[in-house]
Amino acid sequence: MPNLTSSLDIIINVLSNIGDLPVEILHRLIFSSLIKAGLSLFNAQKEQEIEFEKLIQTIPTSYRGLVNGKLYINSLHFIKTFKNLLKNTDRFPIMKEANIHYVIQFLEDKVGRVDVIFVLDCASVPEIIALASKFVTLNHNVIILNEIFINPVGVTQFLTRQLESFGREAYLRQYAEILKERLKAKISIKSSTIDLLTHTYGFDLNNFLNFLEMRRLFDQINHFAKQNSVLITSDHGYDVVADKHGLYITHGYKGECPLNFSKLALFLTID
């Protein structure tokens, strides 16, 4: 899906050319830009816009303008493209992008092999983009693959139930193991941190960002990426919801919301 991922490539280019910023700031920049774009397409209330502005205040002053420039424009393009993809929801059960067999075959054909697999439960677009941008600044070859995994209900079980056709138990850890075997990797790592934080701190955007500790996640991946090729993916992302309770994060949300990313899992390669 080149049209979907092309906007993300531009965003990575913008972020990586700012300078060697801490990954936490890169993450806040893209997180905020995507929410701003999502709110512009959503009938946001004044209270929700005020809450968003409070989030912007947590970004260093010299970088706040980026949220309104190229980052916003390309975030808007990405969200519009993804929303158009989601419109035809009746196709999901037969969409090849929702079939793990198709996705794994694509990875075998496109990637071939990697050294290390990371499956990050609930890792969403902001995390993948922030990590990709940081690794670009460190002169790694970084690619957001032009194929995605579509999770129509935005929950882990949609993926793990498909693992039974591989003769595996329905656990996300098994998905990581299958990827390890098929891509001839040395190590597979499955992490539930982002999913746990979504359920624990998702009711407050700033708390979620603070407890996410992007630096720790980056350091864990960088430990392997220094001498190995790495594939990073997830089972689903998360949604940013705007309703009477304000702005908050969840996954598997069934209504309209500014960011409906729990239906999407990206694939990032680093070498």
What features would you describe in this structure?
The protein has 271 residues and is an alpha+beta fold. The protein has one domain. The chain is built from eleven helices and ten strands. The chain has helices at 2-16, 23-40, 46-56, 70-87, 100-110, 125-137, 156-160, 172-182, 193-201, 205-212, 214-225, and strands spanning 116-120, 142-144, 149-150, 187-191, 230-233, 239-243, 246-250, 259-260, 264-265, 268-270. The strands form three sheets. It has a five-stranded mixed sheet, with helices on both faces. Strands 7-6-8 form a three-stranded antiparallel sheet. Strands 3-9 form a two-stranded antiparallel sheet. Strand 6 and strand 7 form a beta hairpin. Helix 1 (2-16) packs antiparallel against helix 4, helix 2 (23-40) crosses helix 4 and helix 9 (193-201) packs antiparallel against helix 10 (205-212). The radius of gyration is 17 Å and the shape is globular.
List keywords for this structure.
271 residues; alpha+beta; 5-stranded mixed sheet; 3-stranded antiparallel sheet; 48% helix; 13% strand
